[in-house]
Specification:
Jelly Rolls; six-stranded antiparallel sheet; globular; 331 residues; 2 domains; RmlC-like_jellyroll; Pirin; RmlC_Cupin_sf
Length: 331
């Protein structure tokens, strides 16, 4: 049985299917850092504050001194941020903060509303600071749109990783071969196993085969092939920078070409509710969007407790998470 529904080129951001709303892949070859944790190179010629064009291998995004995304609001969905390489400094309107990287994952439920910033501090002054970072938006069901915001850190040391001769599978959400991911946020669509939400990173060895097992139900399942030479699925040869939408309730065999293949898998039962999005707000109706914009204008979702909108933590600080209740975890 043919398991391929569609093959499509990857743009920026990547195309997703319900229950996912958005997936952005950031790969930036940042240079050495300066004392402010920004690039130790000239920023001349960049559209600072809106620099999404790759120049010399990297972008500043909305940052003007340090690359990244200064304070901005979210409501009605979750962000799952995977820092494969480099570091991200998180700060939010609840007073929570963290520095995560080198394989860590941050899972944040925006729910009723939160502001946060995500900056990429260039901590190395003696060598380059490469960044590989995914941000995934997972929708919330209508009944959970207004839950209290929630912030969790999935440390790389505790995320299940399965290694065999053909593959390394990192299980950020869902399960593989009866190995379960760390618990997702409590109100997440991923919290109910019946929704079969899975987020895996797959690193497949050259000249090998890998099997993705069939799901229980017919759900959304998409592969994002972002680095490698080629893969073969059935009779289709697929090159990097392509997405593959699959029929989920049948097994899929991936045959890898002459170079290691790097793939992100996103799957889940669709929520099948109306989606009305206005920038960082995702609700079910236009009136809810209008109410959200009004409320944010009045409350700023609790305001911004940090001195700078592009807040970063001290350079010497290691990986850590500070939660809204004051609990501090250092790695």
């Amino acid at each position: 049985m043919n398991s391929i529904k569609n093959i499509f080129p990857l743009g920026f951001p990547w195309q997703t299917k319900d229950p996912f709303l958005f997936c952005a892949y950031h790969y930036d070859l940042y240079p050495k850092g300066n004392e402010e944790m920004g690039p130790a190179e000239s920023l001349e010629g960049r559209s600072l504050g809106n620099d999404f064009t790759i120049k010399n291998g990297w972008r500043m995004y909305h940052g003007k001194t340090i690359p990244g995304f200064p304070s901005h609001p979210h409501r009605g969905f979750e962000t799952i941020s995977i820092a494969n390489k480099g570091f991200c400094d998180h700060s939010d309107s609840l007073g929570a903060a963290g520095r995560f990287g080198n394989g860590d994952v941050q899972w944040m439920t925006a729910g009723a509303g939160v502001q946060h910033s995500e900056m990429f501090p260039l901590l190395n002054t003696e060598k380059e600071n490469p960044l590989e970072f995914f941000q995934i938006w997972l929708n919330l069901a209508k009944k959970d749109k207004f839950v209290a915001p929630h912030f969790a850190m999935l440390w790389n040391e505790y995320i299940p990783i399965i290694k065999n001769t053909s593959a390394t599978i990192k299980i950020i959400a869902g399960s593989y071969n009866k190995v379960n991911a760390c618990a997702p946020a409590p109100n997440s669509w991923a919290a109910n196993p019946e929704n079969e939400v899975a987020i895996w990173t797959l690193h497949l060895e050259a000249n090998t085969s890998f099997s993705i097992p069939a799901s229980k139900n017919d759900i959304s399942r998409t592969l994002y092939f972002y680095e490698g030479d080629s893969i073969l699925i059935e009779d289709k040869t697929i090159t990097p920078n392509h997405g593959i939408e699959l029929i989920s309730n049948t097994e899929t065999i991936i045959k890898v070409g002459s170079k290691k293949a790097h793939i992100l898998l996103l799957q889940g039962k669709p929520i099948k509710e109306p989606v009305v999005q206005h920038g960082p707000f995702v609700m079910n109706t236009e009136s809810e969007i209008r109410d959200t914009m009004k409320e944010y204008g009045l409350t700023q979702f609790g305001g911004w407790p940090w001195q700078y909108t592009d807040n970063v933590h001290p350079k010497e600080k290691g990986r850590f998470a500070k939660f809204p209740d004051g609990t501090l975890v250092e790695k």
